[in-house]
Amino acid sequence: MSYTVGTDAETAQPGFEKPGEKLALGVAARLSRYLQVLIQARKMGKETISSQELADYTHVNSTQIRRDLSGFGKFGKRGVGYNVESLVNQIRKILHTSGQHNIALFGAGHLGTAIATSDIFADHGFRVVAMFDVDQGKVGERIGPLQVRHNTELREVIDEEDIVVAVLAVPSAAAQQLADELVDAGVKIIFNYSDALLQVPPEVTVHTSSPAVDLLYALYFYLT
Amino acid sequence: MSYTVGTDAETAQPGFEKPGEKLALGVAARLSRYLQVLIQARKMGKETISSQELADYTHVNSTQIRRDLSGFGKFGKRGVGYNVESLVNQIRKILHTSGQHNIALFGAGHLGTAIATSDIFADHGFRVVAMFDVDQGKVGERIGPLQVRHNTELREVIDEEDIVVAVLAVPSAAAQQLADELVDAGVKIIFNYSDALLQVPPEVTVHTSSPAVDLLYALYFYLT
DNA sequence: TAGATTGTTAATCGATTAACAATC
DNA sequence: TAGATTGTTAATCGATTAACAATC
Question: At A222, is the pLDDT very low, low, confident or very high (cuts 50, 70, 90)?
Fold first, then answer.
């Protein structure tokens, strides 16, 4: 849909990615999944991992994994596998996500609280720096390391903390209006936990979490 | 990875799916996503929807959508689009998920409570019929329409209610042991909200929810 | 009719897989 | 050496896209 601006947009050599060139959608998605497994494997004290083990956890074919990785360099050791720690760093470099990213969380209900007190985002370099709610009864409350603020402060915080990502754990009915305010405040990525179909301008990406979709899919292959 | 047992496993005619034949992985995944948007569109009172509108919400190319659907019949009306209600039913038929499916939910913390009180599963024909926790302080508590039971009752409930799907909203440290018990009790699909890497036999499917992976992916395309 | 949108074709590109030499 | 696993090739299959006739 969108292309690299300027430099180096000629056809890429097959099987070899030029630095500075945008990855294919599929490759980027798969690398993100490898990263998740690697980070968890590292947590468990694993030092090396084979393409086959990665395949078992990600449901991606092991040849595909080796192929994806070998496009960027020879990261593995034959007969041994990949060093977990170094592969984490390599993939982070490829995905340009080595740094920390600040995110804002909306909704201090059960879901918002669950997100704020878990480390699912922190493990991947995302830091929840602010939490908002519209309920004055919740504003000021401390949840994990954060103090709940009122939505009216959102623009200020987004500017100050340089926030690009917003996570929405609010009721469906409130989601579109909040999305409009966020777009207006300069947020570029909205992670939507409600089931609302959000309308946003083309430069903003909405990702809607749909556990039921994943379940339907898994169930289909169980039923057939 | 697995194939249809018995009947009708010859090569499929391109662009035409024989009933009783297993869908390609990609088609099944995409149909599930169309379904989610359709169900939400129906909720909003929309009667027809075009392939272009579906494309905007699912990020799947509109030609691809028309192609996917036309493989099963002529569901649309030229110049008008697809009837939302009838397309929901058609896709449900194709995915064999027209009926109700019972699921069991584990963990009565913030996340478990959020899931139990939301309708994200109910809208798609999944009914949470039981909720479990290991904390005796929570057992007996009423959450939404459910009363929390102790994990020791899981086998009994799974047998009685014919449960194939378990949703895990428990701490990572507890996930593997619980997964083992569930596999033993006959559960076939485990939806894992913890970040643990679960080991299960090949006949069981684990789906691990990874919001951070989705964020990393979205962020990559924002950063480049 | 005029406008919109489906259904379908054809051409291209990326994903998948088996196989195996290279090498740790 | 023997065993394991990577890196890479080649062949096949499915996804993507543009284009457009059919038709509501």
Answer: confident
